Amino acid sequence: MAGEEEGFQALIDEKDRLENEIARLMRFVTPSNEPCPDGRGFDARDAEFQLSGAQQTLACRQSEHMAVMEKVERALAALNAEAMLEAQPLPRCVDRRLDPRAVAVIGGISESSPAQAAGLLLGDEILSFGGVSLETMGDLDTCFAALKQHVDANVGSPLEVVILRGETPDRVVLQLTPEQWNGPGLLGCLLQRADAAQVTSYATDADGDSFG
C-alpha cells in the first residue's frame, strides 16, 4: 500500500502546484484599479507576460487541475477500498459463478458503516439497489451511473437492496439508508461491478459472519 500512498501524495503535490500557479495567473489577468505603465489594467510587476498568453496558460492550468482532481478522487477511492479490504476477515471461497442478473458484488464493508448496519456482508451479489437493476437499466454502465445518482438523491431515506447470498444462494431483501457517517462515502462499502469482480463468492454461516 506504500506505493499507492506515495502516488497519492505526488498527486496532492501536483494539485497544490497547479493551484498556486492558477492563483498567480488569476492575479495577473484580473484587471487592477491601480495605474500601470502600459495601461492595460494588469499588474505591472508581471508586465513581461502578455495578457492573452497568460489567459491561455490559465485555461490550460485549470484544465490540468480538473484532470488531477479526478485522479485524486480515484486514488483516494482506491486507498479507501484497499483499507476496507484489508480489514475484512478472509472468507471461505465457494467455486461458483456470479448470477447473470448481478449488478455488483460487495467487495468490502467498513466497520460501523450504514452498509454494515443494514446487514450487508462481504460477497453479497446485488441484484437490485433501490430499484436500479439490469432489468430496469439494461446495462452495467447505466446501472452504475444511476446507482450514484440514486444514492446521492436519497440521503436519509431507506433503499431496498435485493441480494443473493451464500452457496445456495439465498435471496435476501435489506433496507440500506445512505447517510453521512464517520467514514468515506454515504454507504461505507465497496461495490465492485459484476463484470469486473472475480467469479468467486463467499460462504457465510447462519449468523451472517464470514468464515475465516
TrEMBL record:
Q: Name one GO biological process term.
A: proteasome regulatory particle assembly
Keyword tags: Chaperone, Coiled coil
Q: Which segments constitute the PDZ domain?
A: 83-167
Residue ranges that the Swiss-Prot or TrEMBL entry lists as coiled coil: 1-28
Its cellular-component GO annotations read: cytoplasm; nucleus
Q: Return the protein name.
A: PDZ domain-containing protein
